[in-house]
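Exercise 7. Given the encoded structure of a 151-residue chain, write a plausible sequence.
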């Protein structure tokens, strides 16, 4: 499943990307018509907090409720089946690109304590952000596992 989040759902978009879902994030101020066109053209489910936009996108849109990212994730899970453990940590949380294995030069830019771990070590081919299994990954994995367990 591919998603398009409106600008009000940035944290949910990043969580979906962390789960491995192809999730586009609308730019700030994008007109509703543009979001509807993009979602249809790219075969994405439009996620929004806007009641009218969700109705306009129906059946290919979901109105997301909740203030925090976990409440929003639960709202999404109540509307559609989401595999929260689809392919964890295989997409860049910032720009949605598929991550690739980091080479030796890229790993050399990581903190020493990260490099001494077992990996996997990944990098985003678009923004160059580096990823490794540290405490942040453990916290996000626990969130994803918690969401998966509620299904």
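Solution.
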């Amino acid at each position: 499943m591919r998603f398009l989040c409106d600008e009000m759902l940035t944290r949910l978009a990043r969580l979906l990307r962390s789960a491995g879902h192809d999730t586009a994030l609308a730019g700030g101020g994008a007109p509703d018509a543009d979001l509807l066109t993009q979602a249809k053209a790219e075969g994405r489910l439009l996620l929004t907090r806007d009641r009218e936009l969700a109705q306009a996108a129906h059946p290919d849109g979901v109105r997301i409720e909740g203030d925090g990212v976990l409440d929003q994730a639960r709202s999404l899970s109540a509307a559609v089946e989401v595999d929260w453990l689809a392919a964890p940590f295989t997409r860049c949380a910032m720009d949605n690109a598929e991550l690739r294995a980091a080479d030796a030069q890229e790993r050399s830019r990581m903190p020493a304590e990260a490099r001494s771990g077992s990996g996997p070590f990944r990098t985003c081919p678009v923004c160059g952000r580096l990823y490794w299994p540290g405490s942040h990954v453990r916290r996000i994995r626990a969130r994803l596992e918690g969401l998966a367990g509620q299904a």
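Remark. The beta strands are 3-5, 23-25, 45-48, 61-63, 100-101, 122-123, 130-131. Students should compare their own answers with the one above.
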